[in-house]
Amino acid sequence: MKAVVVHGKDDLRVEEVPDPVTDPDDVLVEMEWGGICGSDVSYWKHGASGTAVLKDPLILGHEVAGHVVEIGAGAAAEAERLGVREGTRVTIHPATPVGDHAMPADLAERTNLWPEVRYFGSAAFSPHEHGGFARLRTVRPDQLRVVPDRVSTKEAALAEPFGVALHAVARAGDLSGRSVLVNGSGPIGALVVAAARAKGAGTIYASDLSPAALEIARKMGADHTVNPASGDALPQDVEVAFEASGAPKALGGVIAAVRRGGVIVQVGNLPAGEVSAALGNLVTREIDYRGSYRFVDEISDALRLMADGVDVSPLMTHEVELVEAAHGFGLAADRSTGSSKVMLKLS
Question: Per the database record, which ranges form the Alcohol dehydrogenase-like N-terminal domain (predicted)?
Fold first, then answer.
């Protein structure tokens, strides 16, 4: 089968790899759609994503959906319990906690904080955990999430990043009627806008340097957009801010935009290592600064919200065939193309 494989910095290939063999406890999924994430681009551009450094060739992709083509004998009972059979359309929870660890009781349900997690398309561990940018992938039945009838598999491939956004919104607490700033309107920021709107936020401001990204944010539910490159100023005294750009230099302005006693959720990945940022107002304004990492099971919430009418289609700006993956990655890496989420047609 063909797969999108990164071999190192600036070395991305679409190549033939062996078809996976379905073990008795696994389910075989034929992939239909995948969304290119910033971490996928980072492996291609830098040979690393954050602290995860590429050591061996890696099949990329953790935002995927498709349909079941084979169920191992040992997985049949669990698949039946989940309503999964051959032909069922599914997306995949890409995380697998590993290692023998003891979590504090108050963190037991926050599985995203487990010390060791193997994740689709990640080089964090050796051997690396191959992703889903291929025609076929075997998974455990508990990783499957059934796609509702009113949601396409193309849309379902975005349940994973939408789950990230929903987790970030949950970290902020109740947003009902509250004023919200989303700084950074790339794919995650735009999905945070949609998640905040779905969770009852009042006025939502979206900020970005790209007019195209701001237009997508408007379509995803932002009431007002701010472009600092055009001289726009961030709003003042918002109750909650989501920093989704991952740019340390943006932090000072975001902190200043939040009212005293407000909340900031950091959802954009900050660079590895030390960063320089203006943080003084965290103290004098007594602002809660909270991290947000991946998700627990908000991927299931994402599917439900999409079935209930949350439209993620404005995010999907480009579509390419699997064999044209290099072109798709180039689009995803170049915001001047107007790209947000570039979708790979995997089969």
Answer: 24-148
The domain over range 2-158+312-345 is classified in CATH as 3.90.180.10: yes
Query: Is the distance from CB of 24 to CB of 73 less than 8 angstroms?
Result: yes
Pair 24, 71: CB distance under 8 Å: no
Domain layout of the chain by residue ranges: 2-158+312-345, 163-291
**Average pLDDT over all residues of the chain:** 96
Angle at 199 between CA 197 and CA 204, to 5 degrees: 35
Q: What does CATH list as the number for 163-291?
A: 3.40.50.720
Mean pLDDT of 287-300: 97
Give the β-pairing of 144-146 and 136-139.
unpaired
Instruction: Give me the half-sphere count of Cα atoms (radius 13 Å) on the Cβ side of residue 177.
Output: 0
Cα–Cα dist 6/318, whole Å? 21
Query: Above 90 in pLDDT, residue 273?
Result: no
Separation CA 145–CA 289 (nearest Å): 32
Residue 177: count other Cβ atoms within 10 Å of its Cβ.
10
**94-127 per-position pLDDT tens digit:** 999 999 999 999 998 999 999 999 999 999 999 9
Q: How far is the C-alpha of 292 from the C-alpha of 269, rounded, in Å? A: 9
Helix (H, G, I), strand (E, B) or coil at 206: strand
What's the pLDDT at 271?
A: 80
Amino acid at 213: A
**Sole residue written with tokens 């051959």:** 86
Tell me the C-alpha distance between 317 and 127, whole Å.
34
- Phi and psi of 205, rounded to 5°? -105, 135
Q: DSSP characters for 257-300?
A: HEEEEEEEEE-SPPPSS------HHHHHTT-EEEE--S-SSHHH
Among 13, 5, 6, 15, smallest CA distance to 47 is for 6
Q: Which amino acid is at 245?
A: S
